[in-house]
Design a protein that fits this description.
With 198 residues, this protein is α+β, with helices and mostly antiparallel strands. The chain contains 1 helix and 9 strands, in the order H-E-E-E-E-E-E-E-E-E. The protein has one domain.
């Protein structure tokens, strides 16, 4: 009779508890890294959208101010009637022939200045038609800090503080917004020189 030799059971392959914990830790690290990169991409996309919106509003504000300021004194006996020259505020009046703000041929007074509020600074256009209540329009709002400054020049191009001598107005907008994904700000300083047509 042949004696059967007992064969040892084959060793089962598998992972130890330590190996499982190590794999789980690496997996969690990879998932966290992917999530961090995804959130960074989303924030970068939002910042780019905010910058594009800011550029659009700034361009629109500059074009609007350019058109309005050029009309200063139009069809008024006193071309500099209600003309307020301040470093951070400009006020002027003209006859609104095209009924942009008032009825046709009504006098409109326009003021451009920065108003500070809880959501940041806002570039405001205040318009008053004769003696009607003023209307406030936000030209740039909700993105960063905004400063506006004005310089006044006579016909020879020299700086002046005399309303009757003003022939052109230079205004500068200082707009700050997020730069990419960082917390830093990026300044945009468009300077525009507007010649008064009247």
């Amino acid at each position: 009779m042949n004696a059967t030799v007992a064969r040892p059971f084959p060793r089962q392959s598998g992972l130890t508890l330590m190996e499982l914990l190590l794999c789980a830790g690496i997996g969690m690290l990879l998932v966290a890294s992917g999530g961090f990169l995804f959130i960074g991409q989303v924030r970068g996309y939002n910042d780019i959208g905010a910058q594009a919106k800011l550029q659009t509003m700034t361009k629109s504000a500059v074009l609007n101010m350019n058109t309005e300021i050029a009309n200063t004194g139009a069809c008024l006996n006193n071309k500099r009637h209600n003309f307020v020259m301040l470093p951070n505020k400009l006020q002027f009046a003209y006859v609104d022939l095209k009924a942009r703000h008032c009825g046709s041929s009504d006098t409109v007074t326009v003021s451009y200045y920065v108003a500070t509020g809880t959501t940041g600074d806002t570039l405001v256009a205040k318009t008053v038609c004769n003696h009607t209540p003023p209307k406030y329009t936000a030209l740039i709002k909700g993105l960063g800090a905004i400063n506006v400054s004005y310089l006044y020049y006579d016909i020879a191009g020299a700086a002046t503080i005399v309303p009757a001598q003003v022939k052109s107005v230079e205004f500068s907008l200082d707009v700050k917004s997020k730069a990419g994904k960082s917390l830093f700000v990026k300044d945009r300083n468009p300077k525009v020189r507007v010649e008064l047509l009247n």
